[in-house]
Amino acid sequence: MRPARSRLLRYGLAVALPAATTLAILCVEQFLAKGILVLYIPSIMVSTWYGGLGPGLVATLLSVGTTDYFFIEPLRSFTITSSDDLVEVVVFSFVAILTSVLNTAQKRAQQALVDSQEKVRLVFDVTKAANEAETVGNAFRFALRRLCEGGIWIYAHVFLLEQPPQEKLTPSGYFHVSDPSRFGSLRAASLRTPHRRPELIAGRAMARGGVEWTDDLASDPAERAYQPFLEAGVRTVAAFPVNAGRETIGVIECFALERIEKSQAFSNLLESIGLELGQVVERQQLQEGYSDAVWEQQRVLAQELHDGLGQELTGLGFMSQTLMEKLKGSEEEPSALRLTNGLKRALEQIRSLAKGVSPVAPDSEGLRTALQQLAETTASTFGVACDFDAPGKFPVEDSKVALHLYRIAQEAVTNAVKHARPSRIAIRLESGVQGLTLSVTDNGAGLVRGSGIAVGSGLRIMRYRAAAIGAHLTVEDAPGAGTRVACVLANDVLGRSAHEAGSPQ
């Protein structure tokens, strides 16, 4: 519908301009002797520049026809009897056609230059955002938004590949709609559409490992599955894979109302975006692999300290206690006492070190217990009143998710003590419509005066941990005074596996 309206406007202008020029000439015809055809040049140039070669040729034909009919003898006739008039018409026609061709070529060259600059800027922006993004989700969201900002694509979304044996594409939470009031229904339609591997456009892009393109969705073999998109006026669909190394992890699908022919430059652009996003995924996979290795090494070390050295020190403690009882009343009793107390302190330090590596017990209530101990330790160590409140039961079965949440709370408490100088800190764990919320609120200097609490590595670490478990972190001024750090974990995330949730550090 939109291309037809545009075509009507372009050709309508090509008719209107020569007609307006003819009326103007008729009004001043008595003052003109020769060169009437030259007056039509501006209307031809405008028609060509605005509408292209086709409207330019239409304007040329109308200009010659009206001149012959109204201003060349015999009047009110399309017959030309004078050789001079015939030469003038031929020369004018040649010049007008040449002008239309050159104008069209110039406009296409300028548009190509603008398009190439926009494409380079798009790839640059996506590359920059991908390198700076803290999470894969942030990179995907920016890329989709940037694609839809160009005025071509009205809706774009990401499908992720499920692991074998299913190996099918499923809708993700990453999408962008250029005009939600007009095209918001497309999101619901994409969630209802089954995207099995070999069949639909996104599936074909994944299967061939390259850009899949259709500029007429109504004639596509899978058009029945895209009925809601056709009803919204979608005509062009492009899909391209996101590859992490040699592995395809998902597909991005874009929709446009106009007919856009596939070109090599366009395909290269989309492939470049898929490559940049794939590198973000690959980088995160490497980070998670490194985090897994570090975490596993820490866990093994803590276990060896507790089970190995801890048990050895426990045995030595019993032996020293027995020795002290045997030496009771002798000159060596004080030495035996110092030996016994030293072994006890060493054992306590070993247990404390092992607990520091893994402060959250591997059970559903481990997070609650660890947060309670964090509040007590903060109050005793820093002399700041620290309360913990957790109305109801909130079992977190995934020990790695629980550890991430604990580390976020620990970092928020440390930031508050260091930078905000509060007199009270409140740690709260509660459940609501959004999901499980862990918050740390202090009554200190706040974000403005408490420099350092809203910036620096501490905040980046908290954001990384939140993103690793699919949570959303906010840092804002608390009501009244102070700062509130909140981490919201959606209910569906609580049931994910440790692999999906991420690996704590």
Describe this structure in words.
With 505 residues, the protein is of the alpha+beta class. It folds into four domains: 2-116, no CATH class; 133-262, Beta-Lactamase, CATH 3.30.450; 288-357; 366-501, Histidine kinase-like ATPase, C-terminal domain (Heat Shock Protein 90). 58% of the residues lie in helices and 14% in strands. The chain contains 16 helices and ten strands. It has a five-stranded antiparallel β-sheet with strand order 2-1-5-4-3, sandwiched between helices. Strands 6-7-8-10-9 form a five-stranded mixed β-sheet. Strand 6 (385-389), helix 13 (399-420) and strand 7 (424-431) form a beta-alpha-beta unit. Helix 1 packs antiparallel against helix 2 (41-51), helix 2 (41-51) packs antiparallel against helix 3 and helix 10 (264-326) packs antiparallel against helix 11. 31% of the residues are buried. The model is unreliable at 449-455 and 496-505 (pLDDT under 50).
Give the mean pLDDT.
79
How many beta strands in the DSSP annotation?
10
Radius of gyration: 37 Å
Q: What's the CATH architecture name of the largest domain?
A: 2-Layer Sandwich
**Span from first to last CA?**
55 Å
Question: How would you spell out the order of helices and strands?
Answer: HHHHHEEHHHEHEEHHHEHEEHHEEH
* Regions with little confidence, pLDDT below 50 for 5+ residues: 449-455, 496-505
Proportion of residues in helical segments = 55-70%
Count structural domains.
Answer: 4
Derived structural class: alpha+beta
Inertia-based shape: elongated
How would you name the oligomeric state of the polypeptide chains in this document? single chain
Q: Per DSSP, what share of the residues sits in E-state strands of 2 or more residues?
A: 5-15%
In spatial order, strands of the major sheet run 2-1-5-4-3
So what's the CATH class of the largest domain? Answer: Alpha Beta
